[in-house]
Amino acid sequence: MTRIDTEWTRREDLRAMLAVLDAEGDRCRYVGGAVRDALLGIEATDIDIATRLLPEDVIARLEAAGIRTVPTGLAHGTVTAVLPRGPVEITTLRRDVTTDGRHAEVAFTDDWREDAARRDFTINALFVDPATLEVTDYFTGLEDLDAGLVRFIGDAGERILEDHLRILRYFRFHARFGGAVDGEAVAACALHADRLKALSRERIARELLLLLGAADPLASARLMADGGIWKVVLPEMAENGLDRLAELLAREHALGAERNALLRLAALLPTEPLLADAVAARLRLSKAQRLALARFATPWPASGTARQVAAGVQPEELVAPWLLLRAPDAMLATGWQSLQDWQVPVFPLGGRDIIALGIQAGPQVAKALGEIRRRWIFEDFPEDARLAEIAAEVAASG
User: What is the mean pLDDT of the chain?
Assistant: First the structure.
């Protein structure tokens, strides 16, 4: 019998909550991603619990014990318990009654297997008894996890028709956990790719960024191209987008750079900031994400050091990833290194300093300041003595 052994199962706040819910026997079980990750030795970020208790019973028991709850999804049986070491979702066992590819109407059940059968992939349908930490596997999830195989529970096409987002979820999970390729799953995703058009842009954007944030999403991205998925979710993708993604991943590896899903998305797009901004708007990205994506889709300047470029970009933290994607090979390593743990120096002069040099208050002050700052950047931010010389020269000239 397979068991899990991980830090979060020893959480005192979690044990206390399970005791309140009377978790002895099979009333509650751990389920889903936390179980899967524990089996792979990955630290879990979200703990999910399945229970036979109805949502109102979960709320009543926890609140009677002084544990705060949030009714995060009562229609689908989900209650969030607010614990000292982080929230935990508790969901009543359920089965799908109707589905339309975007939403599901559910009914509650007391059958563990029936609940497992409505989940998407075999590796996500593993249960663990909190008392024994033994794994219950109804659909060969353990075997698939060992094989690096992401496989739908039941018929892949039918599962996609229930929830169209499962197409992108398949490739996301393949990028994270897959090595082997399930031909049936890929064929079903390709067959139903157009159904992704019915989903909200926010849901598509979230899945794409999660997928591109995997350690190495390239193989999955190529599978998506072969299946025509990118044509649906990212029709603006450049013809050489996958090659540029491969180059970016190689640069990240060589320089030890952190993963940046938005930068990887930019790698797939043409080097056209206006187009990137349109993509960001369509995907309903945040204002900060839109700004970043447009910056990343901008060609790297033909002249100037990395630090000089950084002085002209706001926010300056966009410069290092932008360089990683767009800078020529000749300046990549030195430019990257020069930006690490460096901040653009604060330009120390203001309008009063310029007026003190004899320039009359008015538009000429701003013009002079701009020229002094330009030369200060061009000379790589010299010390005060040289800056004073530059200021005097600009004032004298005009």
Answer: 93
Beta bridge partners of 357: none
Task: Give the SS3 label for residue 99.
Answer: strand
Query: How far is 267 from 279, CA to CA, in rounded Å?
Result: 13
Quick one: 366 exposed, middle or buried, by C-beta within 10 A (0-12, 13-18, 19+)?
exposed
Q: Which residues pair with 47 in a beta bridge?
A: 88
Q: Which token pair is 87?
A: 């929230």
Contact yes or no for 138/113 (Cβ under 8 A): yes
**Residues 377 and 362 reside in one and the same domain:** yes
Please report how many Cα atoms fall inside a 13 Å half-sphere around the Cα of residue 147, on the Cβ side: 13
Reported as a single tens digit per residue, the pLDDT across 112-131 is: 999 999 999 999 999 999 98
Pair of tokens at residue 262: 């938005």
Measured CA to CA, the distance from residue 143 to residue 162 in angstroms comes to: 25
Q: Do both 141 and 171 map to the same domain?
A: no
CA distance 197 to 302: 39
Task: Please report, for residues 186, 246, 249, the alpha-carbon distance to residue 148 in angstroms, rounded to integers and kept in the order given.
Answer: 15, 22, 22
* pLDDT, tens only, 74-104: 888 999 999 999 999 999 999 877 766 667 6
In the 8-state DSSP scheme, what is residue 211? H
Residue among 44, 55, 47 nearest 15 (CA): 47
CA atoms 309, 315, 316, 322: torsion sign: negative
Q: Is 317 helix (H, G, I), strand (E, B) or coil?
A: helix
**79 CB neighbour count, 10 Å cutoff:** 25
Number of domains composing the chain: 4
Same domain (yes/no): 54, 130 = yes
- Give the C-alpha separation, 66 to 149, whole Å: 42
Q: 225 and 245 share a domain?
A: no
Do the beta carbons of residue 50 and residue 31 sit within 8 Å? yes
325-335 per-position pLDDT tens digit = 999 999 999 99
Give me the DSSP letters along 234-265.
-TT--TTHHHHHHHHHHHHHHHTPPP-HHHHH
Say if residue 3 is in the same domain as residue 118: yes
- The crossing angle, in degrees rounded to 10, of helices 201-212 and 218-226 is 130
CA dist 300 and 312 (Å) reads 12
What is the C-alpha separation between 375 and 364, in angstroms, rounded?
A: 17
